[in-house]
Amino acid sequence: MRTDHVTDLEITMENPVERGDLSFRDYHELLSSEPRTISVLYRDRQLFDITIPPTVFNPVSSRSGQALADMILTGEIPVEGRRFVDLGCGSGLIGLAAAERCAKSVLYTDVNPNIEFLASHPGVRPETDRVVVQSFCESEEKGSADVVVFSLPSRIREEKPDDGTVSAAFMRDLDFIPDMVEKVADVLVPGGSFVFWYGIHPFQVHLFSQFIGLLAGYFDSASLKCLLEYQFDDGYTSTVYSITKKQGAGY
Ligand SMILES: C[S@@+](CC[C@H](N)C(=O)[O-])C[C@H]1O[C@@H](n2cnc3c(N)ncnc32)[C@H](O)[C@@H]1O
User: Fold this and answer.
1) If you measure from the C-alpha of residue 25 to the centroid of ligand 1, how many angstroms do you get, rounded to a whole number?
2) Nearest to 130 by CA among 105, 96, 107
3) Torsion of CA 93, 87, 77, 10, to 10 degrees
4) Which of 15, 106, 110, 175 is the S-S candidate for 95 at Cβ 3.0 to 4.6 Å?
5) Is 163 helix (H, G, I), strand (E, B) or coil?
6) Which residues have a Cβ under 8 Å from the Cβ of 116 and sit 6 or more positions away?
7) How far apart are CA 57 and CA 39, in angstroms?
8) Considering only CA atoms, which residue is closest to atom 23 of ligand 1?
9) Whose alpha carbon is nearest atom 21 of ligand 1?
10) What is the CA radius of gyration of the chain?
11) Would you write out the chain's pLDDT as a tens digit for each of its 251 residues?
12) How far is 91 from 57, CA to CA, in rounded Å?
């Protein structure tokens, strides 16, 4: 299990934007207010560039996207020959890493309609990969994926954020988790893996426990594995877990 955020993945951006005193939210609003090009390097090798359109989450300073892409590139999250779903793909960083590691197919999917730019990215393979705007894979065939990776929005509020906004990248309402668990279980084949980034805020451990309880309805609890846990000074803990869909679970 990883206990820190050390990564061999480096993201640089043309014309960097300093965060200064901006809150996380205001910084991301600013980052996603105009198209910006990032370059992704792995162990000093240039992998790909992505020009991210407005409203789409920019992973330049995001620990979650970088860690998940790094774990795919190292093989800690096995993807080779598997039907891979980059759920909540945003810029496509995670799916492009899966294509680099020879996933059999990659579905890039997000509620944000502005992800459609990915269809013409050179790392998206026209014969195997697709870009689809939808919520939680709801229009996909049941049992059509071997691995789903999702960096969950970590802040909770009463109202649902608008789909085409960068707020949907880091805010979720209270219906989000039950809906997601059911739909991710649907798209996965029995024995398939769900790998997720989950940020636990101080005094919200009970919400994480509820989430794990819901997963137990569709996934094999004994397969739950922590791949990363890191606690910040303010008590916020970032985690990455994997869990396998129950063999006997239908669609
Ligand atoms: C934390 S961002 C991660 C973006 C990208 N995967 C990365 O690592 O940079 C979460 C993403 O989930 C998307 N999202 C939020 N709700 C969703 C839903 N119901 N279905 C699919 N994607 C959703 C957001 O639009 C956003 O792109």
Assistant:
1) 15
2) 107
3) 20
4) 106
5) coil
6) 131, 133
7) 15
8) 88
9) 110
10) 17
11) 988 877 899 999 988 999 999 988 899 999 999 999 999 999 989 999 999 999 999 999 889 999 999 999 999 999 999 999 999 999 999 999 999 999 999 999 999 999 999 999 999 999 999 999 999 999 999 999 999 999 999 998 888 888 888 989 989 999 999 999 999 999 999 999 999 999 999 999 999 999 999 999 999 999 999 999 999 999 999 999 999 999 876 55
12) 7
> Rounded distance, CA 85 to CA 76, Å?
16
Instruction: Give the residue, by CA position, lying nearest to ligand 1 atom 24.
Output: 169
Assigned CATH class of 9-245? alpha beta
Q: What whole-number distance in Å separates Cα of residue 205 and Cα of residue 200?
A: 6
Q: How many helices (H) and strands (E) does the chain have?
A: 5, 12
Instruction: Please list every protein residue whose CB sits less than 6 Å from any atom of ligand 1.
Output: 57, 59, 62, 64-65, 87-91, 93-94, 110-112, 135-136, 151, 153, 168-170
Residue found by looking up tokens 């993201």 in the block? 11
Best probe residue, ligand 1, of 89, 94, 163 (max atoms within 8 Å of C-beta): 89
Query: What span, in angstroms and rounded, lies between the C-alpha atoms of 215 and 213?
Result: 5
Q: Where are the domains of the chain?
A: 9-245
Ligand 1 atom nearest 69 alpha carbon: 8
Ligand 1 mutation target, pool 11, 117, 151, 166, most atoms within 8 A of CB: 151
Closest residue CA from atom 20 of ligand 1: 135
- How far is residue 222 from each of residues 95, 212, 215, measured CA to CA in Å? 27, 12, 11
